[in-house]
């Protein structure tokens, strides 16, 4: 029997939802690892809708669950229905939707609030000692919910201009968590909390390196499951 993994999305599109390449990479690596995957998203309105061609917000209103259904090919459930008892692990791809829809990090930084269903999902898997995988900006979710945990969002300095959001590492440290510097093709395993993180698009890197890094995260999650 393959591991049962829940994948939580935050919309569709890097600037206002889930990062599509990260979500796809996670699904490919989970498939390769023989996992049985079910996809979830919160049934809430997006914080904003961004025109991805122009990079600017629009006046549109969109729903996170409906938009996430694009990535899930329609096979998706409301996050409120996720039961940790039915899964061996949970994974959160990144994208600005994590920082806008799953929590308020995009506006409030370390003072953010986490969506109630995201929070309860994280708490349920953590309490059951089941692994949680996160990439890109999504490690801020566990940094906020589990003070003292270890995560990576890449580097804590903008090395060679490849890590323009390196200040996120400092904000994570201010939450009482330990940031571990890692390269894009690596992941970090917090064994005590069963949290696995990788930086993905927090690093300006070739797509195949981001894909490989997400692969290490997925492999470690499946090992812990």
Automatic annotation (TrEMBL):
* Gene3D superfamilies attached to this UniProt entry: 3.40.50.880
UniProt name for this protein: GAL3A protein
Q: Which InterPro entries match?
A: Class_I_gatase-like (IPR029062)
Which organism is the protein's source? Cnemophilus loriae
Q: Which domain of life is it from?
A: Eukaryota
Gene transcribed to yield this protein = Gatd3a_0
The uppermost taxa in this organism's lineage are: Eukaryota, Metazoa, Chordata, Craniata, Vertebrata
């Amino acid at each position: 029997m393959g591991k049962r993994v829940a994948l939580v999305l935050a919309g569709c599109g890097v600037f206002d939802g889930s990062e599509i390449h990260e979500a796809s990479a996670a699904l490919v690596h989970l498939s390769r690892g023989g996992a049985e995957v079910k996809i979830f998203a919160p049934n809430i309105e997006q914080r904003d809708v961004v025109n991805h061609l122009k990079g600017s917000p629009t006046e549109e209103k969109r729903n996170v669950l409906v938009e996430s259904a694009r990535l899930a090919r329609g096979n998706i459930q409301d996050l409120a229905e996720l039961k940790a008892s039915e899964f061996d692990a949970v994974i959160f791809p990144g994208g600005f939707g994590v920082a806008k829809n799953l929590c308020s990090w995009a506006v409030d930084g370390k003072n953010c609030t986490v969506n109630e269903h995201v929070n309860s999902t994280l708490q349920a898997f953590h309490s059951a000692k089941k692994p949680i995988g996160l990439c890109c900006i999504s490690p801020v979710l566990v940094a906020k919910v589990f003070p003292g945990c270890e995560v990576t969002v890449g580097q804590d300095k903008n090395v060679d201009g490849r890590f323009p959001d390196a200040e996120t590492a400092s904000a994570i440290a201010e939450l009482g968590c330990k940031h571990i510097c890692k390269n894009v093709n690596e992941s970090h395993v917090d064994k005590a909390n069963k949290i696995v993180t990788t930086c993905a698009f927090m690093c300006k890197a070739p797509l195949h390196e981001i894909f490989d890094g997400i692969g290490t995260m997925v492999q470690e999650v499946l090992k812990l499951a």
